Amino acid sequence: MTLQQLKYIIGVSEKGSFNKAAEQLYVSQPSLTAAIKDVENEFDITLFNRSSKGISLTNEGKEFLQYARQIYAQYDNLLERFDTSKKRKKKFAVSCQHYSFCVKAFIDMVKKIEKNEKESDEYEFAINETRTLSVIEDVSNLRSEIGILYLSDFNRAALTKVFKANDLIFEKLVSCNAYAYLWRKHPLAHKESLTFEDLKDYPCLMFDQNADSSFYYAEEILSEKEYPKIIRTKDRATNLNLMKGLNAYCLCSGIISNELNGNDFVAVPFNDSENTNNCMEIGFITKKNVVLSSAGQNYLEELKKYLC
């Protein structure tokens, strides 16, 4: 088995088609098919289900792909670090829950790289604001180098078990208490602190995690509590609009980028003596034994500057 064959397998899995992968990889389809068949014969496995409707990974293929991505990602990082014979396109991806500070750190990372003349090469970066389970899957499958999410006393045991099963490591960045995030003209925005009783007449915003997802994957602290009014959304922009239009609110870390969100919103401390589980431990996950790219290291540096 060769690195080139691993590259072909990854390409086909991403494109979902031998033809499309061959075009992207600048190789003939017969050569691509033969290379992958050689790997299947070498390991006596079947990587792809082939049918008239297209292709899909087998269960063996899914497991094989995880290792293939890890090996090839490390090979790319090795070339980036030590191969000075030619310019290489920098690649980096991060997946995160819906945090504006993740976007802020991403922007600062890109600016830093573009400012440094030695690093002003071509790049292909990605930031994915997505569901909690997708953050975990992206890092587990090495579609992203880094995943940003939080732990609490409520979800810690469940998520730690998932991390362990997927060979992921969690590293804490910062601890913070819960805040209610509101439109500046909300009737309660002037208060020094808020409780569930204060907020009961207003819609609580929660990011949709899919109906079949465990409630341990919720992005909002204290999501296990009963709320009289709930509106589920999929993006931060919609949340901001609903805060203005409906006086809705969400419970969050209070770490907000006004540079990106504007000054029309405020974070009011949330204090409720009946609920002590209101501390968020925000951190990042990476694949075990994976060395981060220079862009990944830069991203964490910018993130720590903002949070720590």
Task: Explain the overall architecture.
- The chain is an alpha/beta fold.
- Helix content is 42%, strand content 22%.
- The two termini are 44 Å apart.
- The model has no long low-confidence stretch (mean pLDDT 88).
Looking at this protein, list some descriptive labels.
elongated; 42% helix; alpha/beta; 11 helices; 12 strands; three-stranded antiparallel β-sheet; 308 residues
| Poorly predicted spans | none
Secondary structure category: alpha/beta
| Main sheet strand line-up | 4-3-5-12-6
- Shape designation: elongated
> Number of helical segments?
11
Q: Between the first and last Cα atoms, what is the distance in angstroms?
A: 44 Å
Order of helices and strands: HHHEEHEHEHEHEEHEEHEHEEH
Strand content: 15-25%
How many β-strand runs?
Answer: 12
What integer is the average pLDDT?
88
Helix proportion:
40-55%
Q: How many whole angstroms does the radius of gyration measure?
A: 22 Å
Largest sheet: 5 strands, mixed
